[in-house]
Amino acid sequence: MSTEGGNRAIIAALSANLAIAVLKFLAFLLTRSSSMLAESIHSVADSGNQLLLLVGGKRAAKQASPQHPFGYGRERYIYAFIVSIVLFSVGGLFALYEAWEKFHDPHGFEGPWWWVPLVVLLGAIVLEGFSFRTAIKESNHTRGKRSWVNFVRTAKAPELPVVLLEDAAALLGLLFALFGVSLTLLTGDGMWDAIGTALIGLLLVAVAVVLAVETKSLLLGESATADHVKAIEGALVGPGVDKIIHLKTLHLGPEELLVAAKIAVADSATGTAIAKAINDAEQRVRAAVPIAKVIYLEPDIYTAQQTSSTTPVAP
Question: Can you give the residue ranges of the Cation efflux protein transmembrane domain (predicted)?
Answer without folding.
Answer: 10-220
